[in-house]
């Protein structure tokens, strides 16, 4: 997949942004009582970091621009690291909580799937991240991903089920496939 194409030219990327904003504000109304801008932490891998595109074209930057254009005071922090796995996310999340995010968009797991890593370990790691976010008062928007078929049907199906299980267990809103309407379209 040409990541530059996905983020810079595809009209459905705007649909993804509108959907993310809708979910964010439906499930997480802003707490503006403190007077400071609420923080949204975009926490993920290369899809969040915007690998291969200018910084201004990453989804967190585009989300920030849409929020500004529509009068929302939120600050979006891009905490994407290309190549990151859920294990890397566990190592990074506590440090990132110093930003006091109100909302965390959790977009990790794709690289675990691409590498065929243990699904039990991936689920455990995502759960650790969820616990840290909740302990720090952050609300979480979980985003799912699809695994490539080369590891077999059982792995692929179980990979996708992981995100649904976690969303159900922790009562989190879920975007079942982060790249829905974006990936695979030419």
UniProtKB/TrEMBL annotation:
InterPro entries for this protein: Ester_Hydrolysis_Enzymes, SGNH_hydro, SGNH_hydro_sf
GO MF term list: phosphatidylcholine lysophospholipase activity
Sequence ranges assigned to domain SGNH hydrolase-type esterase in this UniProt record: 42-177
Protein's name in the database: SGNH hydrolase-type esterase domain-containing protein
Source species: marine metagenome
Origin organism lineage: unclassified sequences, metagenomes, ecological metagenomes
